[in-house]
Specification:
Largest sheet: 8 strands, mixed
Distance between the termini: 28 Å
Strand order of the largest sheet: 8-9-10-7-11-12-13-14
Shape: globular
Order of helices and strands: EHEHEHEHEHEHHEHEEEEEEEHH
Strand content: 15-25%
Oligomer: single chain
Helix content: 25-40%
Length: 337
């Protein structure tokens, strides 16, 4: 643990200017103790337009200039995931903390390199897995860990969206990490591993496009204690985004948007159902909880979040790697790190 930031706001930079960056910036402006001071883009024009939109003092026309900004403590990396490695590495090497969109990189090997770099430089790094810091999901995990449904025996989760996507869309391009697995499948895998840890066995099946990206993927994860997870992701039809956690004494049901739910229902054997809502647990929709967590960690001098541990992020990527090994999905350029 290093020296924490005290006596002033935690100063944020945003790297990239797309839709996710804009949504994060809007939420960050509401976080106490956080200040958005800079934005960086590959073009000065894009950075200036973003800065004007959110009243950000400084607009940098390159990622390197943002990383070198002495008034920035931590950078939110909001690029497409094929650029996460380059952008996050640049910031870490400059001594900046990093909150990196999910998945952290294309594969576990690349992510391990970032983790090693962050630890060697004693710099904060966290994957922006907002599900893990969502107050309602944290409440769900606490209940499960306390034995509210007994021993967890099964997890089911689905994240599928409606297609088709045009052939020139990034989701259809293996050079841009396209397909459903990295954009959507990371959520059900992360949800299952939040409750059960890294699986012992991984089975999967995928339907691939002509370009080689996965249009839909089904996964069956197994644990040595007999538990399993049945997970789905896809681009061929909108799914319910439901999740169910089965246990020996009951179950938890999330009717939709399990990755950032509005509510869940706890059903225990011999008891009336209990509904937990996001409002009761302090909200949690949007990007605010992850910004709050990063700000808290930097104030306390932490280089890793206990809610989104780096080993957990690596474990999810290892599972995604195993799924791709089975299904034959490959991304151009991932051999470079």
């Amino acid at each position: 643990m290093g020296e924490g930031i005290t006596g002033r706001p935690v100063r944020w930079g945003v790297l990239a200017t797309g839709g996710i960056a804009a949504a994060f910036a809007a939420d960050l402006l509401t976080v106490p103790g956080a200040e958005l001071v800079a934005v960086g883009s590959r073009t000065r024009e894009s950075a200036r337009a973003f800065a004007e939109r959110f009243t950000i003092p400084r607009a940098h026309g390159s990622w390197a200039a943002l990383a070198a900004d002495e008034d920035v403590d931590v950078v939110y990396v909001a690029t497409p995931h094929t650029a996460h490695l380059e952008a996050a590495r640049l910031c870490l090497e400059a001594g900046k903390g990093v909150l990196c969109e999910k998945p952290m990189t294309l594969n576990a090997r690349q992510a391990a390199g970032l983790v090693d770099l962050a630890r060697a430089r004693d710099v904060f790094l966290m994957e922006a897995m907002w599900t893990y810091v969502n107050p309602l999901v944290r409440r769900l995990k606490l209940l499960v860990d306390e034995g509210a449904i007994g021993e967890v025996t099964s997890v089911e989760a689905d994240f599928s969206v409606d297609g088709p996507f045009p052939a020139d869309h990034r989701m259809m391009d293996p050079a841009q990490g396209g397909g459903s697995l990295l954009d959507l499948g990371v959520y059900p895998v992360a949800f299952a591993q939040l409750l059960l840890g890294e699986p012992d066995g991984v089975r999967a099946s995928a339907r691939l496009s002509e370009s080689g990206v996965d249009l839909q993927t089904g996964m069956l994860l197994d644990w040595a204690n007999g538990a399993h997870a049945l997970l789905r992701c896809g681009l061929t039809g909108a799914g319910p985004t439901r999740a169910t956690v089965l246990g020996s004494e009951g179950r938890v049901e999330i009717a939709g948007n399990f990755f950032a739910p509005a509510e869940f229902v706890l059903r225990r054997r011999g008891a009336e159902p209990v509904t937990y809502t996001a409002r009761e647990e302090g909200g949690g929709e949007g990007y605010v909880p992850e910004a709050v967590e990063v700000t808290r960690c930097l104030r306390e001098g932490l280089t890793e979040s206990p809610l989104v541990p780096l080993e957990g992020s690596l474990a999810v990527l290892r599972t995604l790697d195993r799924v791709r090994e089975v299904t034959g999905v490959r991304y151009e350029g991932e051999g470079t790190d």
